[in-house]
Design brief:
It is built from seven helices and ten strands. It is an alpha+beta fold and 210 residues long.
Amino acid sequence: MQRLIGRYETVWRLFSYRPVPTLVMFSRVPDVSGTTPTLFLGVGAYQLHMTLSEEAESRLADIVALQPTKNGELQQRWGMDSGSEVHQYLENELKEYYYRDEDSLIRATPEAAALVGMDDSEEIVRVPELQARIIDVLAGPDEDPQSVVSVLHDLRDVGVDSDPDAVRSGLRSLKDKGIVSLIRKTVPTFRLAVERDAIEVKVLEDPVES
């Protein structure tokens, strides 16, 4: 045993579920009588995170900002061909920094916000340009809800050129974030779920490309 464990020996134990090594220190200390060597176990744990590329860090910041989000929103944001490509990227590059909630929406881990240096306060909403403009024009919580076409017309009135599919997608993304309420009538209609001045809106910068 003494040949296997010296006075101080460091061993590494890698957990299979995620790459978080645990540093375990063994040292020999005498028992109360002072004659029989015993083992003293001290544990210090820390994480070894993979080094992210500039592109991966930018995309991680998107997840922190847009959460909860979906494959489709990230596909559009990152210029990918399919939701499957998004899923594959997340699993290959950002697996330890994201998870899916009970509604299968993509969320960032607490470590992710710290890693990218982003305040994930609920009072700050970081969204793409179109969603920011939707917040600007959409009916307030106490006003009559609007259809997708109505919101599209209001956007065009303020000089925002878009299309119904993009507006519908933006409204549903804002709904997932709790900013917009969906009022089900003959056709889906929408209005803000919170007062406009209760949130601070910041437009996301263009994503970093590889």
